[in-house]
Amino acid sequence: MQPFHPIIPAARKAIQETGRLTIVALGSSTTAGSGASAEDRSYPFVLQSELRRRLPGVEVRVINKGIGGQSAYDMLLRMDSDVIDEKPSVVIWQTVVNDAIRDIGEEKLAKILRKGIAKARAAGIDMILMDLPWLAREGRYPHFDEYRAVLAKTAEQQGVSLFPRYAMMKGWSRSKQFTEEELVGMNGLHLVDAGYRCLASRIADGIVSAVGEIKIQTMGRMGRVD
What we know:
With 226 residues, this protein is of the alpha/beta class. Helices cover 53% and strands 13% of the residues. It contains eleven helices and five strands.
């Protein structure tokens, strides 16, 4: 399985200087929690719980700004109000699925992604892009792989971390860790509780590995190390 080592210097700095970590989860149905049995089973909620548990003494907030059905452009339009105005250290941008389904044009998508990344960077916010999901029947979307490639190439060119969701979910399928219905639900598209929990846990692994050392230093200065 691909490792996830995000580069999030703003998050490290925020923890070091303020003892706080604020993350905005920007996205469509995966972020909103479609398929979850309750709001507190969505990946942003579980991520917040995991980070609070793993980063004791750090004030962690994960703000869910997921709206089902939205395109990358829809999210770009609310980047100021829903992301920058919240003053987070990190934004996790889950997008492109609806653009691939609608086939909006690869260059158009790349331009939208670059603009979103530039907005976050100008505001001093670390960005993590989320790879597209692995779908058991992704062949019904003929341009899926091309749009995944645009996302990966843009992340690489812009120096932005990419969470390897596709590889992670494909690994789940091959390992038989979940049945197909447990992985993406009965509609074949959306995660269910177990999948969201594992997704959040893997993101937390990467974030904690990136900020854990600085967290220990911070707690030492504050006199809170056991």
